[in-house]
Amino acid sequence: MKVSPGLRSLWLFKSCLPHQMTSLLLQTEEHALMFGFHRRIMAQVAGLLVTLILPHILSAQVVKPPEEEDKIVLIGNTLAERMQYFGDWETLLHSRFPDKHLVVRNLGWSADSINDRMRSLNFQDHGHTLFDHQPDTILAFFGFNESFAGPDGADQFREDLKQFISDLRQLKYPHQTYDRGAETPKLYDGTGEVEKTPQIVLISPIANEDLKDRGILAGQANNENLQLYTDAMREVAKTNDVPFVDLFTPTKAIMDRHEQPLTFNGVHLNEYGHEKLAPILDEALFGDLPAETLSDAQLDSLRAAVVEKNLQHWYDFRAVNGYYIYGDRKEPFGVVNFPAEFTKLRKMVANRDARIWALAAGEEVSKVIDDSNSGDFVDVVTNFEQDVHITPPEEAIDLFTLSDGFEIQLVASEIDFPDLENPVQMAFDGKGRLWVTTMGAYPMYLPGTPVDDKVLILEDTDRDGRMDKETIFADGLHVPTGIELGDGGAYVAQQPNLMYLPDADGDDHADEKQLILHGFDSADSHHSISAFEWGPGGGLYFQEGTFHHSQVETPYGPQRLANAGVFRYEPRTEKFSVHVSYSFANPWGHVFDQWGQNFVADASGGANYFGAAFSGDVDHPRKHPNLKQFLVKQWRPTAGCEIVSSRNFPKEMQGDYLLNNCIGFQGVLQYRVKDEGSGFFAEPIEPLLRSSDPNFRPVDLQFGPDGALYLIDWFNPLVGHMQHSLRDPKRDKSHGRIWRVVYTGKPLVDPPLIAGQALPYLLDLLKSYEDRTRYRARRELREHPTEQVVAAVDEWLGKQKPEDDQYEQLLLEGLWVKQHHNAVDEDLLNRLLTTSDPRVRAAATRVLSYWSDQIDDSLQLLQQQIADEHPRVRLEAVRALSFYRGEDAQAAMDISAEAFLSDVDDYLQYTLDETMATLQARVDAQSKE
Amino acid sequence: MCRLKFFCLLVTGFVLLLSAGVVQAADTPSAVAPVMRLLKSGRVPAARMEAIVEQVIRRGNEHDLAYIYEQASGTDAYDPELRLHIYNLLADAAAERQVIPAGDLSSLVDVISSDQAAASPELRLAAIRLAGDWRVAQAAESLQSLLVNPETPENVRQAALHSLTLIGGDVARQAIVSLTDATHPVSVRSEAVAALASLDLPIAVEQAVGVLNGMNADDDPTGIVSAFLDVQGGSDQLATAIEQSPPSKEIAMLSLRHMYSQGRSDASLSTVLGTIAGIEADPQPLSPEQVAAKLKEVEAHGDASRGEAVFRRADLSCMKCHAVSKGGGQVGPDLSALGASSPVDYIINSISNPDQQIKEAFVTRIVITEQGLIHQGIVIDRTGERLVLKDAKGKQLTIPIASIDEEVEGKSLMPKGLMKFMTDSEFLDLVKFLSMLGKPGTEYAIRQTPRMQRWRVLSSPPAELSGPTVDESVLEEYMASDPKTVPAYSRVNGDLPLGELARDTNPVLWLQAEVDVSQDGDIGISLDSAEGVQTWVGPRSSIEDQITVTLPRGSHQILLRVDTAARSSDVLRLELFRVEGSSAEFTVVDGA
């Protein structure tokens, strides 16, 4: 039973991409749901609207109608980027000009602005610069990200836009790449002749809207600036003789009617929004909508064909291993196989263009797309010289060596569950079931073979310790490196995007696939967003590795990160930030302890870090400098970390830090963690286990509801992104194991009931011993209606006895539950900031850092915390001060100096230096203005 | 590079912002203004003074530093210890951030010759160092007199030489040139030539030829070679000069090896040295066909055990950079699991062409500073202010971003052309060995037990400790003197080859092994055989194969006296084990 089914899907309704990622070659008519009918009505309504306000929308310059075989290229931000998934406008375009055989390429990229466009190394060599495309018409969607510079930035914007237009006419559209560690980008662009001067159409941002139930006030916050920047674009367009389309005014008009949200996050259109937008844009560009010549069914097919073409183009444009295709690691392997792959893929895209033209002309097309003309792959010869021996599970289990008193048990394998191909990350739901992503498509899509990575739900119905039931929650996914559950569904990496898979009806099958964050880079699929983990207060964290240049649009402005870091995402408020900007190689592991202190593991070099010290704010492109490791490093590389918190495990191991090693040592390393001043220090102790099976690749580990430690075994004889061809035929794609480690000296833990439980029961679960039980209870609590949760927390806390040892911890749990709901409780916060347990004071200071925008005297509170007697509280205060901007930056800077009135140890000194550097740069930037 | 105006504006603005903290502009904003206010407010308790002063010097501008320098020099505001600390921090600020106190700094000359400096050699050294870092021209004469005075202690003389080099000018040049003449020992002449390389390259080249040609086979040319490698154009000019007037074959060989061990293979110099030393020119990287052929040969003829001996050879310097089983250098990647993760062709390519595939953490930068100095290394850290490089010796160097004139992506620090130091069969053996590393079930598998891999060999124990019996009091006193050691590494299987370590004249070796204990308890120490071995843990000694010791938390040394003449085995192996019922947690200490 679900108390609040699919909460997130209520937030995001109608933003689905029903067949975008699943439908590939076998696109069929019945996939296209009611598109035509719906579309026609909407188009007529919108057409009326457009006619009424047309003079506003299109400036004096008229768009030249396309000629035969013209190429239309879309550039700009997420507004443009998301259009490819829905296909509405393109469908209208082709049905308006059925005989023109237009080629449309969407080069939209999250958070692209007229000045900032980051790409990974040598992207210009991949074939998608404007010189490569030689467009006849460029539709340029800008102004949204730029508008966050506010009124003060408008003049500069006008100047820059003028230059931008003149550059575009010469097909100059360069991007920035940062060398690892560099804070100054290098500029790259394609080269070539301008074969024809393109027609440029400037297109304004859409209006933003408030989604008040989630605390998103994007309309209130952004519309004034969006109007300002729209006006600036109109003005510059006029003086530079380019056509201009105002999307702000008509979308604002629809939003003002408050009928139905057009966006899923206040700023990006949902499916309904795209339906509304298409006729507005179409008519603004080309005049009154013509009489429709195609039937609804034909329009549906046409849209499906557009989406399919866009998908194949996306696999090309955003190929997820750019560093190995065109970047610094294309030698020696990538140059062998990729040229033929992309020749084939581009031919496939061309085949789909032709299919679109046929459908637009009302012709019949075959259901199966014939790509036999697209060329062949190059045979890749393996350089893995050993024989591959697939160790059967019963043999593999004997190859483990475990610490005294421990036993390892097979929980699931590909033999019972053939879908368990290369499992990567797991999560346990409130029913105690194990969810796991599989990654048979790794390292990336092979042109012509539809991707089919999955989210599986594995269940042990007879409670014998072995899984006996599999449900496919979702399939057709592309290299899902991470998963976490929540909000009535699952958050999954769908490279290179973040996808949300709601299950509102609770039938254990994803209702739809919603892309909710865009712009993560695609340089290296094993550096992509991974290690998904909830923070105690409702931030969803994930990490990416070096080479990547990510830029993500949010209702609060674009966020950029080059060359590795940890992200923090609040799904409710759509706040998204870089939690740690650091020159990791490839972080893959993140865990929070009982008191909310987090630890980050860097896989490649095997380094491990104390999170508070380097999670203060920095402004891109600055990154935090080298931080000392909190533990004595042993064997690299690693994948996943976890803290021991289980009554099944021996007493002396509680609180130990566990770390998977997946090459060489191949086991679980163990470290004893001790407090050390403001931070921690951990020393190696006897490893928990290791295997002599060369195929054993532990890549995730987590305590299950039964208190046993679960291990995900990616199971692969051949690893290494750099040492072998990405297409090495010996890369295993069909095996996978899940193990659990049990201490035989103590009983397992009774798995708690979480799913469907009433609030008082769930709150009582926060008294549980196991960190993971409290983690999953909090996750369940976030799905209940906020008002009820807040009331229940207050009542529950009122019942707790101050004399109990656990009392302060429970108050903190209550605060975190409220933080999940963004329900600011200043009284409780103030109380915990000065409570007796320094671990709680430190945690409360962390909460304060995320609520500072909603609390009036937060700086005064931090001045109090910076004089705390415990160094970790002072460190949290110093960290929190880094988030202040504008007029508060100087005050925060002054307060941070007061840290020197107490002892300053290494970690505190590091955090202090970093906070001061961030604030100083902001103060200096202001004084220059 | 700025092809577009928008970008220029953007980047220029950004660069200005970044450099704001490092250039010596009169209006550089203070990054520590709130700290300075705190310092001057009188709210700072004495115990916190040091931390605050540190912060000001580490981040403050030239005026902040001037305030601290004045306070430290002019008055008795700070105690002598803090004053010394301040001088050292000021030197760091100059070297790493290029920030020096505003105003007239000639008072430093007085400090060098002050009573306080006379009383505190450290203070005098710090002041000498500052004179160079601050380029205090007025100090040149007193430094020159220190330099040429035979009474001057060695460390002071070296500091004076270094500072004079930085100050430059005629006084400095003449003083240094005077040290290159043949009346001085070769070591002094070499230092002087090295100093001249950055001061006056033509004179340095001229003098270098003289000094190198006067060297015997056991003299050390590496200081001179390094100095020329570190200066822009230095290696080319040196190459031209020694081509005309070559040093001995041995000196050329030592110089060439040194170049390679620095990760440098500058074409002209390596060619000239190679010709003199009788080594052929750099071979071309192997073609794919050659790699395929080698691969087959490795399968057929490669011998891992012989290959390990090649890997351990001093002239190839492999272990200076790479660790195996965690014993060895920490510059390049640890190779413990190389064979388990990397195919043979990948290994062949990595040796023949180290630049082809570089793991992201090992990409290097080559930096040329405004002073014309060249630095190459792996980027350890980079901020807007400073770049930290780790060079091929594992040494970290902090370079102010503002002093960087040119910066390019370097290649691998691993020398190219290593293959020319090996015969064909040695190469096949080496590849075979590397391809076995980390293979489970072989003796090249990742270490399974807490086994000693990294040792320290006492380099010059006193004669009393080399005899047949050990005088414990001499031993105690000697060990308390922090004796000099050199590292030694066990083979992958844990065997320490004693033959490689034994000195000609004396069969007795003194070895140290280190263990870190994180939780107190009983720990077992096991030797393959105690024959000829006496083992000390703390004051207690043993001649047994196995001993149990109770060790408290912390780091501990195990000391072994090994009489190789009394031992039938020529290897030694030491393992630690957990004693039944013990709660001890411990790890052996590895590394370089």
Structure in words:
The complex is a heterodimer of chains A (929) and B (592). By secondary structure, chain A is α+β, with helices and mostly antiparallel strands. In chain A, 32% of the residues lie in helices and 20% in strands. In chain A, β24 and β25 form a beta hairpin. Chain A starts with 6 loop residues before the first helix and ends with a helix. In chain B, 44% of the residues lie in helices and 17% in strands. Chain B folds into 4 domains: 28-217 and 225-237, Leucine-rich Repeat Variant; 288-358 and 416-436, Cytochrome c-like domain (Cytochrome Bc1 Complex, Chain D, domain 2, Orthogonal Bundle); 360-409, SH3 type barrels; 454-588, Jelly Rolls (Sandwich), CATH 2.60.120. Chain B contains 24 helices and 19 strands. In chain B, strands 8, 9, 11, 13, 14, 16 and 19 form a 7-stranded antiparallel sheet that branches. The chains are: A alpha+beta (929), B alpha+beta (592).
Measured between the Cα atoms of the first and last residue of chain B, the distance is: 42 Å
Number of domains of chain A: 3
- Based on helices, strands and strand pairing, what is the structural class of chain A? alpha+beta
Proportion in helices of chain A: 25-40%
Q: Provide the helix percentage of chain B.
A: 40-55%
- Under the CATH scheme, which class of the largest domain in chain A? Mainly Beta
Bin the strand percentage of chain B. Answer: 15-25%
The CATH architecture of the largest domain in chain B comes to Alpha Horseshoe
Instruction: Compute the CA-based radius of gyration of chain A.
Output: 27 Å
List low-pLDDT spans of chain A. 1-7, 9-37
Radius of gyration of chain B: 27 Å
Q: What is the count of distinct domains of chain B?
A: 4
Tally of strands of chain A: 35
Please name the CATH topology of the largest domain in chain A: Neuraminidase
Fourth CATH level, the homologous superfamily of the largest domain in chain B = Leucine-rich Repeat Variant
Strand order of the largest sheet of chain A: 2-1-3-6-9
Give me the CATH architecture of the largest domain in chain A, please. 6 Propeller
Average per-residue pLDDT of chain A, rounded, comes to 93
Please give the oligomerization state of what you see: heterodimer
